[in-house]
Amino acid sequence: MKHKISVWVAGIFAVLFSLSTAVKADDLEQGRKLFEGKCARCHGKDGTGNAKMAPNLKVDTDKLNLHRDEVVHKTLFEIETMVDSGDHKMPKYRGKLTDAQIHQVAMYMKQLTGNASAKDETAAPADPAATKKLFEAKCSQCHAKDATGNEKMAKVLKVDAAQVNLTKGAAAEAAVSELVTIVTNGKNKMPSFKAKLTPDQVEQLASYVKGLQGPSAK
């Protein structure tokens, strides 16, 4: 019986991980639209910089070029932080874009720079057994090993038990990309794991949670 359950979870996990690739394609398209609407005015649609805007900002055109080494070698999380909090003459977009939108535009910017190793930092093959161990080590204290929530921890955190249950409610309705954003940046009483997990690990955990939620989850 145990073996059958493991096979079922591994199968669901594999399917959902494949679906997450489709989600990332949609995220990139949404990121493109956001970039062209919010960022292209300064950076140009191709990310090489708008030379006409540079004098208005009193900066060199190169500073608006997203293809320069300084930007190309940034991680996805570093670009998310830059978009969220601003950088030099660049305004912050916190409050203007949702966390999910910031993640989408950052993903698109990584693709736009042409850094092949960074185009899809979250697409590395996942090992279900390793991800299960990672979830149990990093998440189960609050969410329980089966993701239904640790009621004792909910009392410690002074939150409703439903808030630590990942198999129902908002968590079950969330897409993989939304869970990635929550794990990355934290939400309410949940801390950020940006500095504690790699982008691969965050993506794999998000897909693993969708697997625990079962086939009816989004």
Question: How would you describe this structure to a colleague?
Answer:
The radius of gyration is 19 Å and the shape is elongated. It has 218 residues and is mainly α. The chain has 2 domains: 97 residues, Cytochrome c-like domain (Cytochrome Bc1 Complex, Chain D, domain 2); 91 residues, Cytochrome Bc1 Complex, Chain D, domain 2 (Orthogonal Bundle). About 8% of the residues have low confidence. The two termini are 26 Å apart.
Briefly, what is this?
This protein is mainly α. The protein is 58% helix and 0% strand. α1 packs across α6 (99-112).
Looking at the overall shape, the CATH architecture of the largest domain is: Orthogonal Bundle
What is the overall pLDDT average?
80
- Described by its quaternary structure, the protein is single chain
Radius of gyration (CA) equals 19 Å
CATH topology of the largest domain: Cytochrome Bc1 Complex, Chain D, domain 2
Number of helices: 12
Identify the CATH homologous superfamily of the largest domain: Cytochrome c-like domain
| Helix content class | 55-70%
Strand proportion, as a percent range, falls in: under 5%
State the name of the first-level CATH class of the largest domain.
Mainly Alpha
